[in-house]
Amino acid sequence: MTKKTVAVIFGGRSAEHDVSIITAHIPIIDSLTASGNFDVWPIYITKEGDWYADKVMNDLSFFKQSNYTDVLKGKKKVHLLFDNGLELILPGFPRWASPTGFSRERKVRIDVVFPAMHGTYGEDGSLMGLLRMAQVPFVGCDMAASAVAMDKAFTKQVLLAEGVPVVPFVWFTKSGYEKAQQSFLDKIAKLKYPLFVKPVHLGSSVGMTKVKDKKGLENAIEVAFHYDDKVLVEEGVENLTEVTLPIIGNETVEFAHVERPLNKSEFFDFNDKYLSGGKQGSGMHTQYSEIPATISEVQATQVRELGEKTYRTLGCTGIARVDFLIDNATQKVFVNEVNTLPGSLYVHNWKKKGVSGVELITKLVSLAEERFAAEQGLTHTFSSEILKRVSGSKVQ
After folding, report:
1. Is 178 one of the catalytic residues?
2. What is the C-alpha to C-alpha distance for residues 119 and 365, in angstroms, rounded to an integer?
3. 389 assigned to some structural domain
């Protein structure tokens, strides 16, 4: 059987760069390799935006070297051809270094791309737009869903318009805040403390601050603006149970278990997700959550219903994770945010559902091909007489 060639793209110019490296390897590259059905090409984008492709990077140990950035500088960058598909153009050796006295470029045709870039330029839809134009199947949400979900404020606006419950919030851009700071502070004053102040385009809780009173508000906003030019301020939920629901699928969706984070800090932060209590090298650790969450069946049903409505409202395909806030005093369930590239793809949860890492990754590749095939039936261009009829001066 001919193996499909899958490119895993990770790294990038993002605050979540290192998390992306972990996600790319655990579980994506490891599972693709373990299946024996794929020829895996790692495409790593440095923090400076340089692109490299070398199979030595299929091993996470490469990135554990203290000098791996220096090692990369000694390698040639990969070139990519986006022309009715995606091809990697791997530079040959210089003539003097080749045993035969010459060396040709090697081209590798990519069948499917597996994006593993969290945050800016990847998860925000930028990479998906590039892959759409290249006409290559890719795993996960498409450009539009990714762009909307990446903007926490826009996500809430869209969901609110569709009747999906979200907590009260205020958002503003840096330029708008600088011009009318007091006006936005007055809007925020109508919200109930505690508040959460977040950069709208970042995940892994980077740049997020919990504010208990007015005194810390402006400093929290300043911190958020350090990472983003748009900020969200929202009400916190007291008596809180936080749960999350991983979902996969296109037209038909499948749910993993409703999961409850067991964070030790005041909010579920980067350390809780990736470092606290985990085994070294295991990616997102397995001791931070309760699976399935100990909530009532009524609440679990509501979470699944709201999860599917959110998934479809945003136009998600492939995979996403929907996060929820449950107010234990009122029993209200709110959608908090949507993550179109969950760290580690929540393999730990799917395994408890009976889906192995290899099965999950293989399913996601199939879903990418399914969506791509469906899109081939759409017409994107048409012929017209406009160029013949347009008037204007002749080219001199």
Report:
1. no
2. 21
3. no
